[in-house]
Amino acid sequence: MTVAMPLEALPDALLAVELLQSGDAFGGSTTVEWTRTALLGILGYGLLAGVGALAVAFGYRGATVRKLPRGAAVLAGLALPSGRLLLEAIRRGEVVVDSPLVHYTSGSYLLGLVTAGALAATAGHRLGDRLACGVYDVTRLESDGPAADLVRSAGLAVAVALPGSIDDAEGYPAVDDGVKRDLAGRRFLFPNDLSVPELRSRLEARLESDFDIGYVRADLSADGAVEAVAVGDRRPGISPTLGPDRVAVAIAGDPPARASTGDPVEVWTGGADARQYVATGTLRASAGSITTLLVDADDAEAFDPGRRYRLTTRPETPSAGHALVAAIRASDETVTATAVEDGGPLENEFAGWVPGRALAVERGDEIVSLPADKEPLEAGDTLHVFGTPDELAASPSNADDSTVEADADEPPEATPQTAD
């Protein structure tokens, strides 16, 4: 069947074909020039996406020793050209030269760019991951697939599964619930020739490093199965080292050359001829010309912002309390306060027989510091014990849940050398 075209419409059709062939529909550029420009743009933006994915994959493997998922690398790579095109569309109203924003040519250009960018980002992801493995000496081990199944079937690796619920470690701040939900039921691969103590140590170290947890205690059975996991956090900053009615202030002033952390210092204003005493504090830290001091709460108002002070050491023997506090913060041990109840398991018990190290006993208005091993405990006493969570869990007081965690921001006055 032949369709006849009206003779009066023929000039218009010929004009449209001429415009497309000459490129006048695109603002005067030829079709060949537009195609070359579009291909060069697709190639350039594709390379940009590949370089972006390579950099992200390289940094992720170096920071976490894990392989970045392919989808995340592709999205990160496409974010660079997409952002550039968005700026071009806002500024010029077009994404490719002389093509309207709402036009099939712009759509074809964007489709080609996304395709080329995804392919280049995939290649960049693989190359960046391999480069990071070579630079950081990371051994690549696929956890899934036929090779991993073959390794497990040969007994070269053993899968360790965490329990469905994660407990809180006694004496430590609680970890975020989202982290515990992420850990519940998770499986890890370890070499099969590890002993139970080695497997426990490797598991605890991996949980601490991979999930940024301050303290991890795992209980394993004789066959290596994980029975329980308790996690805890470590408080950042200096608030756990502040005693009652003590505050930390940062002032402008260089500490004396002979002063170290924990030394008592005097703060003065003015020059060498007209000096005025401000306060006495304990040196906590210094960074450049900024010094952090621990002072009494009443002396905190004596400092003026923007003023520079002069610090001098006091002719006193410095306290070793900061060394004890630093050791406590760096180790797994913690301090708990236990109430001795009438008829409870700790009544008439010797202080030296309690698991851990007995630091002090509060008995009414009397405080017994570092009690003797044969010091009997009486009903109404408060016993402060220093030890690891494993030792504290073995205390007889856990049978009736009478243990109360000590406030880390207000250490007991009877604890020797805990406050500056």
UniProtKB/TrEMBL annotation:
A GO BP annotation: potassium ion transport
Domain DUF8167: 33-133, 158-232, 247-317
Spans annotated as Disordered: 373-420
SUPFAM superfamilies, sorted: TrkA C-terminal domain-like (SSF116726)
Keywords: Membrane, Transmembrane, Transmembrane helix
InterPro entries, per the entry: DUF8167_2nd, DUF8167_3rd, DUF8167_N, RCK_C_sf
Pfam families: DUF8167 (PF26501), DUF8167_2nd (PF26502), DUF8167_3rd (PF26503)
KW Transmembrane (keyword) present: yes
Protein name: TrkA C-terminal domain-containing protein
Organism: Haloterrigena gelatinilytica
